[in-house]
Protein: Rhomboid family intramembrane serine protease
Organism: Lujinxingia vulgaris
Amino acid sequence: MRYMVKSPFRGHLLHISDRDALLIEATMAQQLQFYWPPFTRNIKITLVGLFTLWFASVMIAPLGAFVDDYMLISKRAVIDQGQVWTLITYAFWHADFTHLLFNGFVLWMFGAELDQRWSATRWWRFTLLCALGGGLTILASQLIFSTNFPTLGFSAAVMGVVAAFAWRHWNDRLNLLFLPVTGKTMLLVFIGLDILFVVTGREAISIAGHLGGMATGLLIASDYWRPSRIKRAFIRRRQRRNLKLLRSKDPDKTSSDRSHFN
């Protein structure tokens, strides 16, 4: 069976088959439907683990005091007291349930697709490296601005996952809160929100963790941390530039264009 549909170009009628009609309907429905990702295995483990640690630190007073003294990252903890492990351990604890809920929701929305495609080893290595990148950025920001705020939360790892998701869909069309954006635009939106929080008075050290996690996630996902990848990208860019120069200086192309009009 074939259908007649009106083309948006000059009002022409187009003949399409059953299969093409179903494909068009499915595409339109997918664009209008909000996508809820599945709860994958490593997402579940991460969320349950983070919730358990938060709940235990709230309910068990000695554990909460231990976390405050030995698990949170700050310039004093790392530089003065030598607690280098806090560059990672700060990520496993949260200040309150709202903080945990936001991180968990964003991790689920953007991390489920990556978890489905990655191995468990790659998932845990990636999130831990993003947390470490955020911790190093937090420490650097405190050294630069001479601050000493203890910081905690899984936000750096979460923002690294967001950056990896954005890189995977860099030029693809996505629906961000029903707004059509590309992956790179979505990443800029998250960065803009972080800057807005700084301007409106939100704690700037956590923003350093966000940006550090994003940068780490983007470097790992894009593979640009490898010197060989950077070298190949530089060579391709130089080749495109040389080709553009050759085309602009090609006399044969110019003469052929002129002879056509003679």
Remarks:
- The longest helix spans residues 120-145.
- Strands lie at 2-6, 13-17, 173-176, 179-182.
- The two ends are 53 Å apart (CA to CA).
- Residues 1-14, 28-32, 254-262 have pLDDT under 50 and may be disordered.
